[in-house]
Amino acid sequence: MSVGNFILKNKTKSLLLLLVIVIVQLLTVFSAVLNAQMINELIKFNMRQFEIKTSLLLLSWLLVALFTYFKLIYTEKVLQHINTQIRAKITQSIIADQREHYNKRTVGAYVSWMNNDIEAIKDQGMSMFFVVVEGIVGTILSLITLIKYNWVLAITALIFTGIIIVVPRIFNKILAKVTAKLTVENEKFVDSAEDILAGFNMLYTFRALNLITLKIVAASNKLNVANVNRIKVQSKIATTGFLLNVVAQVSLMGITGILALHHVVPIGTIAAVGGLSATIFNSLGNMSSYLGMISGVKPIFDKFANYQNQQQNEVSSDVIASNATPLISVQNLGYKFDGNEIIADLNLAIKEGQKYLVVGESGSGKSTLVKILAGYYGNYTGKLQFAGNDYHDLTQKYLLDKIMYIDQTPQFIHGTVAENLSLVNEFSNEELAAVILSVGLVADTTEAADFLTRELGNKGNQFSGGQLQRIALARALLRKPEILILDEGTSAIDKENAIMVENLLLNDDQLTLLMISHTMHAENSQYFDEIIELN
Ligand SMILES: Nc1ncnc2c1ncn2[C@@H]1O[C@H](COP(=O)(O)OP(=O)(O)OP(=O)(O)O)[C@@H](O)[C@H]1O
User: Fold this and answer.
1) Of all residues in the chain, what percent are helix, strand and coil, respectively (each to 5)?
2) In the chain, at which end, N or C, are there fewer CB atoms within 10 A of the end residue's CB?
3) Complex ipTM value
4) For atom 6 of ligand 1, which residue has the closest CA?
């Protein structure tokens, strides 16, 4: 990905924009020439021609205003269109990613990519590209016009053009560095803001809401430093450009004056040179700053590209599993988080259709074990096989098809119960009604239609914890998994319904079930084939 890629991808729109830019610049140069002609006619006391040129000048500037208006709106449309394309590209690489890799970053970091980084690419990369194009078109047209007046003027302008573009490039490396730092600080800020705002209800209870302001201000101060550092570098570039611009314009006017005094060019030429050199150097003076900004967004694109490279390496090929038993075989399994041993030398055989209760004190590694079995973590030691095949040879897709893991804190999207159950799959109303009935979300099917159209709200806040756990379970059961792993999946459900739901799962002969539970009901304990105890 780069600025150029996206411009090329939108060739037609970019060409239309280029056409409008050329028209505006042609009219601007034409106005400068008319300025000179007006003065020359005035010197000759030719009133009629003076009036004609004045009217033409007015008309020319009116057209510049009209096309500029159109250009501003159309530029924004093109840039917003590109924004959406980049966002789509980022989400495509995120959804093609491995879960383990995705979870290395926080949601806040990804939100920052979609928001801050995209804005930076738009404001510093894409829009500056068109400003640079405008500058180049204006410069070329102005240089050609200058040649018509006098070649000395054109050559002088050309030399200054070169100097103005090249000199401020010395700041490019440092600009890329401060831009990269800013994107990281943006991620951190969104992270901190999201983290502290998510704690609103807890802080409300403890009457500690002021902590939100303190944390946001502290995070904002860190972000401010990164922003100011970037502006410092940009200002150095802009100031260098401005000084060179002034020197260039004054020199050109001076040379024109000397040429006019020697009668090489008419007096009015000074007005044309004033306009033309303003067109050239006002944009060129900032050109290096603009070019710097465009190359400054490279680290952002690099960040996206690195993300994609990593996920490509992690994809392995699909294999067909044999019918060997046990379904899952665990030999000498070991797992460490940051050097801390969580699981050591564990051996297990999970057999088809059997029911397992995973117990152990808090922090003993129950969730970690089932996550490893569900394919969340690949960096374990020992040997793990699914139907005779090593986990490392199986793709995530294959494991996801076979094993359904329901997290301790199930997640929901904004939308109705039906949308949260179906996600991207299609199920009939009868299937949806049957599943919510089976987990006790509705008392009979006549209530189903209403229940299915209810909105879950933000992160499911319109439902009780027990209802949410059953919606999560219903969502899994709809997919008819071979292996179901439930991590404290019934902890918030009332006793009567919890026993009913557990019973439903324990009596399904086809289902291989692993359940983590601190609150196993005595009524159901007898149905488990084995208890896996961690300590
Ligand atoms: N992503 C992580 N990074 C670092 N350490 C982690 C991570 N997840 C879990 N741990 C640590 O691993 C240990 C086991 O955690 P795990 O969630 O597997 O325990 P558990 O037995 O399921 O606990 P509980 O019954 O309280 O849910 C804990 O000490 C925990 O702090």
Assistant:
1) 70, 10, 20
2) C
3) 0.95
4) 337
Ligand 1 atom 26 nearest Cα: 362
> How remote is the CA of residue 465 from the centroid of ligand 1, in Å?
22
Q: Which two tokens stand for residue 327?
A: 């379904």
Q: Cα of 342 to ligand 1 centre, how many Å?
A: 8
Compute the distance from residue 421 Cα to the ligand 1 centre, in Å: 28
Give Dmax (Cα) for the chain.
113
CATH of 3-310, one of 2.40.110.10, 2.70.70.10, 2.120.10.30, 1.20.1560.10: 1.20.1560.10
Kindly list the domain boundaries of the chain, sorted by start residue: 3-310, 328-533
CB-CB contact of 28 with 64 (8 Å): yes
Atom 10 in ligand 1: which residue has the minimum CA distance? Answer: 337
Six-digit token string for 516: 């983590």
pLDDT in tens, 400-439: 889 999 988 888 888 899 999 998 889 999 999 999 999 9
Provide CB contacts within 8 A for 87, sequence distance 6+: 114, 118
Question: Which residue has tokens 């400003």?
Answer: 131
Alpha carbons 58 and 531: distance in angstroms, whole number: 90
**328-533 placed in CATH 3.40.50.300:** yes
pTM, rounded to two decimals: 0.70
377 CA distance to ligand 1 middle (Å)? 13
Q: What is the pLDDT of residue 303?
A: 82
Give the tens place of pLDDT for each residue, 256-281. Answer: 999 999 999 888 888 888 888 888 88
